[in-house]
Protein: rRNA methyltransferase 2, mitochondrial
Organism: Ficus carica
Amino acid sequence: MSGAGAPDFFYREAQRLGYVARSAFKLLQIQKQYKLITPGSSVLDLGCAPGAWLQVACQSLGPLTKGGVVVGIDIKKVKVPQLYCDSRVRTVCADIMNFPRDQIRALSPKKSFSVILSDMCPLVSGISTKDSAISVELGTRALDIAVGRAALAQMEGNLEGSATCSNEENDDGVLQKGGHLVIKLLESEDVQELSRICKPLFRKASWLRPKATRSSSREIYLICQDLQSQKKA
């Protein structure tokens, strides 16, 4: 029952509870352990298809009167799920690798976000090294969006430019000071380098493999808490 295509407990629970995918339980566990999203938070969901994390993120905002916003971006057009979502949730169809921070920043009323979730993952080719490399590239782009190229450059002078969107008018990240970042990656030696870069930028950076992750999957989540102030170069 744990094969990639076999219905399992989390799949059945997602259907029973009205979540559009079993992945909802991954974010539910992250929320339970780390409480990253609080009432009134501004949440950016990168790679939001099919919308399960949008549902959990909106639930975590609390009542509509508490405010907050959830913005999902995906290369596919994603319809906001009716169940668990309300008027605070919207989606944008765009390639995040070529979507400028200025345009992302404009999607939040506060021009920044308190939580950034990246559930982006490459289409698995079966070639482990290729899949891992793309996964790290996506993860690096999520970090670049969050903290800004300047902050990354201070930590790692030789980062590949392929993860950075060119022609950025504002090089600052879109994550607020004290904000949180979650990045999904495929386990490999390279992901440790990304973790090494994150640790000085955040108060705490730790790894989590959610219980809802299929046994055949190599995915793991880097949980970065409390973005610290960055000195200008």
Remarks:
- The chain has one domain: 23-227.
- The radius of gyration is 17 Å.
